[in-house]
Write a structure and sequence with these properties.
This protein is of the alpha/beta class. It contains seven helices and five strands, in the order E-H-E-H-H-H-E-H-E-H-E-H. Helix 6 crosses helix 7.
Length: 152
């Protein structure tokens, strides 16, 4: 059929190079928020995805009734991160605002993590919908840097 398997990825350091061992192509679904400066990206991230107690409760209820392995795995990773601010960010997922992990930070930090997915063999990327057209410029910058780092 030509279908591409898409994953909701774990943090890049936990990703195995299993995409390279597959004969079929494989991709990931992520969101990206990147700016020249780390603090600027995080400011935008928290404005776009504020903490939401109602969303957290909805997420917890969904976890109780879901049989989704990826949903459970991302929730486990979120519990392990203990709210720590890392480039790999599950806050929107944990607040029921998005269903995929985000990479947040400076162009350099996000490109470094994205390059790790590229090196692991993931060549297809489905991005969470950016709220405005300007975001595509920032995303393009990150993918260019990541491709250079991954030697693609």
């Amino acid at each position: 059929m030509g279908a591409i398997a898409v994953k909701y990825p774990e943090p890049p350091e936990l990703c195995k190079a299993d995409a390279l061992q597959r004969s079929d192509p494989c991709g990931v679904r992520i969101g990206l928020i990147a700016r020249a400066q780390d603090n600027e990206a995080w400011k935008i991230a928290f404005q776009r995805f504020p903490e939401d107690r109602k969303g957290q409760i909805t997420h917890q209820l969904a976890m109780k009734v879901s049989d989704s392995a990826w949903h459970k795995r991302l929730s486990e990773i979120g519990c392990q991160s203990n709210g720590k601010r890392d480039t790999y960010w599950l806050h929107p997922f944990e607040n029921y605002q998005s269903f995929c992990p985000y990479l947040v930070g400076s162009y350099d930090a996000v490109a470094t993590e994205l390059a790790r997915y590229l090196v692991a063999g993931y060549q297809t990327y489905i991005l969470d919908v950016p709220p405005e057209e300007e975001e595509f410029e920032h995303i393009g910058t990150v993918f260019q840097l990541a491709s250079l780092r991954a030697n693609l």
